[in-house]
Specification:
This protein is an alpha/beta fold and about 325 residues long. Helices cover about 45% and strands about 15% of the residues. Strands 1, 2, 3, 4, 5, 6, 7, 8 and 9 form a 9-stranded mixed beta sheet that branches. The protein binds phosphoenolpyruvate and magnesium ion. Phosphoenolpyruvate binds next to strand 3 and helix 9. Belongs to the PEP-utilizing enzyme family.
Length: about 325
């Protein structure tokens, strides 16, 4: 199968009925970057910047960060890289920072909440990103956005830094895209302005699912208890697809589900057209997408939902098998 996946590397993830899906990869360290060419990913849909902070013994300063971001863009050789700003707290601990005791760290002082409360740290990262991307396009994505106002504050910080650097005559990124992760259920119901103001939106299915089902993603007792392909969750995700479409927002999905072929099929069937996943999953997912007729998968998902099935998984799995997946 490895040879099969390799043979698909330069082919599009196009379904039998002609729907093209964009497949990108997740990364978090410079050493992940060779996977871009090996996997045939279109770009890096989620670059988890906190990994660099987690593997070091001390906090990387602005210059060190800038050098890393520049290197990542060098290695991407013109392909898109979406840099997610620091998502620390919850399961992501920095060895050199004092831990705050929280009963529910996943729902606590983490990610953008932390960033907005520590604007110097956040600003330092934004400056490093702007400098590291001088002369090239820059995509910045904020994690764990929970209100429109949080997104606006984060965006304003980034634009302020961009303007400051321009005023000082520093070379600027050639283009700047500012996006948000949608990983709190509240944002599925955010005002239209959120979907219009974000240049792109990426569903963080790992967090979104844990909050949707109130099931801790790190707890083995409950983690697999609720199916991504159950009608309530699919209906919820479909609503997000609809809101993005109504408001002209570009949408992708970057949780672990995207890297599992049956789940990727279901997500494509409800309207997702871009995924970001671990690089080793790209061949598998591409093979599955190329084997199916998306309108048939869509009908199966709709029938399972209408029929009150607890999950669309068996029907889709059977269909994928019939298609030779
Ligand atoms: C997610 O929550 O789905 C996501 C992609 O982010 P992380 O797994 O880093 O929380
Ligand atoms: Mg997340």
């Amino acid at each position: 199968t490895q040879a099969l996946y390799r043979s698909l590397r330069d082919l599009p993830a196009q379904t039998r009925d002609g729907v093209c899906v964009s497949l990108m990869m997740n990364a978090g360290l410079a050493t992940d970057m060779p996977s871009l060419a090996e996997s045939g990913a279109e770009g890096v849909g989620l670059y988890r910047t906190e990994l660099m902070f987690m593997v070091r013994a001390t906090m990387p300063g602005r210059d060190a960060q800038e050098a890393v971001y520049r290197r990542i863009l060098d290695e991407a050789a013109g392909r898109r890289v979406v840099f997610r700003t620091l998502d620390i707290g919850s399961d992501k601990i920095l060895p050199y920072m004092r831990r705050t005791e929280e009963d529910n760290p996943a729902m606590g002082w983490r990610a953008l909440r932390f960033g907005l409360d520590r604007p110097r740290l956040m600003t330092m990262q934004l400056q490093a990103l702007l400098r590291g991307a001088a002369g090239r396009p820059l995509s910045v994505m904020f994690p764990f956005v929970t209100t429109l106002e949080e997104f606006r504050k984060a965006r304003a910080l980034l634009l302020r830094e961009r303007d400051r650097q321009a005023a000082r005559g520093r070379p600027a990124p050639e283009r700047l895209e500012i996006g948000a992760m949608l990983e709190t259920p509240a944002m599925a119901h955010a005002p239209d302005a959120f979907f219009r103001e974000a240049d792109f939106i990426s569903v963080g299915g790992n967090d979104l699912k844990q909050f949707f089902f109130a099931a801790d993603r790190g707890n083995e007792r409950v983690r697999r208890r609720y199916d991504t392909l159950s009608p309530p969750y699919l209906a919820f995700l479909k609503r997000i697809v609809g809101r993005c479409a109504e408001n002209g927002a570009s949408l992708s999905f970057c949780g672990e589900s995207a890297g599992r072929p049956i789940e990727a099929l279901a997500l494509a069937a409800i309207g997702f057209r871009a995924f970001s996943m671990r690089p080793s999953a790209i061949g598998m997912v591409k093979r599955a997408l190329r084997a199916v007729d998306l309108s048939e998968a869509e009908a199966l998902v709709a029938a399972a939902v209408a029929g009150g099935d607890p999950t669309a998984r068996p029907a889709l799995t059977r269909y994928a098998q019939d298609c030779g997946v």
